[in-house]
Amino acid sequence: MAVTRTFSIIKPDATKRNLTGAVTKMLEDAGLRVVASKRIHMSREQAEGFYAVHKDRPFFGELVDFMMSEPVVVQVLEGEDAVKRNRDIMGATNPAEADDGTIRKEYALSIGENTVHGSDSEENAKIEIDYFFDEDEIVG
Ligand code: RTP
Ligand code: MG
């Protein structure tokens, strides 16, 4: 299996509860390596642009407000089959449906405040990495 990259966000509910390290440890224990990381406070424009795919969904306004509510940590993760590996350790979007041992089962508060984002395909991973990082910020 090839080493690939994915994009992760440690969301406001997690940074607010000082869980950046705890979440990162679960990612690392799952075989992912943090090859870029920065803490940012998203602007409305950044949050709306990032989640543009969801702009017609009923939760869009709530989602954008949430993502701007506190700082987040954006990360590039590297590992074998990184997109799937990350989605597996994240768990289901709704923590009530997340498997034991996943980040969302352990830490998510609700379907909205669900602790982490992870790219859902390699194509989207490339787009999302480019949205937040210059190539020279990524050190593999
Ligand atoms: P993400 O994009 O954040 O990794 O999460 P996901 O793929 O598991 O979920 P997605 O369907 O892409 O939804 C993006 C984020 O929107 C919020 N959401 N709220 N209130 C709701 O019904 C609802 N549904 C989704 C969540 O924060 C979700 O992660
Ligand atoms: Mg998604």
TrEMBL record:
<keyword id="KW-0067">ATP-binding</keyword>
<feature type="binding site">
    <location>
        <position position="59"/>
    </location>
    <ligand>
        <name>ATP</name>
    </ligand>
</feature>
<keyword id="KW-0547">Nucleotide-binding</keyword>
<feature type="binding site">
    <location>
        <position position="87"/>
    </location>
    <ligand>
        <name>ATP</name>
    </ligand>
</feature>
<comment type="function">
    <text>Major role in the synthesis of nucleoside triphosphates other than ATP. The ATP gamma phosphate is transferred to the NDP beta phosphate via a ping-pong mechanism, using a phosphorylated active-site intermediate.</text>
</comment>
<feature type="binding site">
    <location>
        <position position="11"/>
    </location>
    <ligand>
        <name>ATP</name>
    </ligand>
</feature>
<feature type="domain" description="Nucleoside diphosphate kinase-like">
    <location>
        <begin position="3"/>
        <end position="140"/>
    </location>
</feature>
<keyword id="KW-0963">Cytoplasm</keyword>
<keyword id="KW-0597">Phosphoprotein</keyword>
<keyword id="KW-0808">Transferase</keyword>
<dbReference type="InterPro" id="IPR023005">
    <property type="entry name" value="Nucleoside_diP_kinase_AS"/>
</dbReference>
<protein>
    <recommendedName>
        <fullName>Nucleoside diphosphate kinase</fullName>
        <ecNumber>2.7.4.6</ecNumber>
    </recommendedName>
</protein>
<comment type="subunit">
    <text>Homotetramer.</text>
</comment>
<dbReference type="Pfam" id="PF00334">
    <property type="entry name" value="NDK"/>
</dbReference>
<dbReference type="InterPro" id="IPR034907">
    <property type="entry name" value="NDK-like_dom"/>
</dbReference>
<feature type="binding site">
    <location>
        <position position="93"/>
    </location>
    <ligand>
        <name>ATP</name>
    </ligand>
</feature>
<dbReference type="InterPro" id="IPR036850">
    <property type="entry name" value="NDK-like_dom_sf"/>
</dbReference>
<keyword id="KW-0418">Kinase</keyword>
<dbReference type="InterPro" id="IPR001564">
    <property type="entry name" value="Nucleoside_diP_kinase"/>
</dbReference>
<comment type="similarity">
    <text>Belongs to the NDK family.</text>
</comment>
<feature type="binding site">
    <location>
        <position position="114"/>
    </location>
    <ligand>
        <name>ATP</name>
    </ligand>
</feature>
<keyword id="KW-0479">Metal-binding</keyword>
<feature type="active site" description="Pros-phosphohistidine intermediate">
    <location>
        <position position="117"/>
    </location>
</feature>
<keyword id="KW-0546">Nucleotide metabolism</keyword>
<keyword id="KW-0460">Magnesium</keyword>
<feature type="binding site">
    <location>
        <position position="104"/>
    </location>
    <ligand>
        <name>ATP</name>
    </ligand>
</feature>
<dbReference type="GO" id="GO:0004550">
    <property type="term" value="F:nucleoside diphosphate kinase activity"/>
</dbReference>
